Amino acid sequence: MALPRASRLALLLVTVAAGLEARGPIQDAIDSGAAADYNKDECTWRRGNDRDSCPDPDVHLYLYTPGNPKRKLDPNHVADWLRQDYEPAKENVILVHGYAGGEHALPMSVLRDAYLRNGSYNVFLVDWGALCAAPCYPAAVSNMRPVARCLAGSLTALRNHGLAIGRTSCVGHSLGAHVCGIMANYLLFRMSRIVALDPARPLIRPGLVNRLDSGDADFVEVIHTNAGYYGELGKGGHVDFCVNGGKSQPFCEDSDNEQLCSHVWAVCFMAQSVDGGRGLVAEPCSRRCPSGPRVAPRSGELLLMGQHTPAGSRGSFCLAHRQPPYCPEFNEGRGDDRCCL
Questions:
Q1: Which end of the chain, C or N, has fewer beta carbons within 10 A?
Q2: What is the pTM of this model?
């Protein structure tokens, strides 16, 4: 007898997650029945075989610059687009959201606004929300590669018309961090810098094709806030930061979903680093994130975490920061209320 759709999906997720530890969001979703709340036919899928069309109608790139309205990239008029508000003397940052994100969605809108508040950046915001919409997480994982391929085409066109790659960083959260890394497979030049904010773990298989690794740019920085659950557990960059042990944030203990809170707040740590960086000095620690929030100090040089981490940095570093980052209440009035619990 054929299994009902919900049962087939649960079986599929069990098979895909077979290589993962028993604990984790996929197993939790199966145990609670939430995994069955998903209809493959109602999700948007790309083939992912490098024959998908680019530009993709569901992948949008916007330019934000201080004091100017946002501008959506017209793939047929890239040169004109750059001549309008783009400022060649400034640093460039490409922001890539994760699952269930979008142009104005949290948490990446907080980071966009922090860069604009700083005033020293051309902010390119990627919106692939139609291809990673809830509850279609498996579709979002599958769509990362075609999204990255199209973004690589856009980045190549921008470079050909004057964008300075050496002053360009790709900053991605969760699945967006892997999108930054996958882009490297489609570029004929090397990316300068990737900052991965708690890169996603569920359904991300081992290998170098569909995930971020330290070979994807001249400098790859990883910030871990929920390692082993929603976030990747192992070392993934030239430099890895483990915040409060890297696995669970103390200020999330009383939230409705401690794990998801810990995963999302990686973006607020990055926003704080962009807007002053107060209190984000880390110490050398073990090669993997410790098992708890208590961090034993080790000898060695201290390192600033986030936007201003020196590109030549190497190793693993631990940061103790018990208050919500980038919350004005705990940051001398600087920050964003959306980062307060």
A1: N
A2: 0.90
Q: Is 308 labeled as catalytic in the residue annotation? A: no
Type and span of the H or E element at 326: none
Question: Is-catalytic flag, 198?
Answer: yes
104 part of the active site? no
Query: Among the options 56, 127, 198, 216, which is catalytic?
Result: 198
Structure tokens at 220: 């790859």
Among the listed residues 109, 142, 174, 214, the single catalytic one is 174
Q: Provide the pairing of β-strand 239-243 with 217-224.
A: parallel
DSSP 8-state symbol, 40? G
Find the length of the chain: 341
Please identify which of the residues 97, 178, 263, 321 carries the catalytic annotation.
Answer: 263
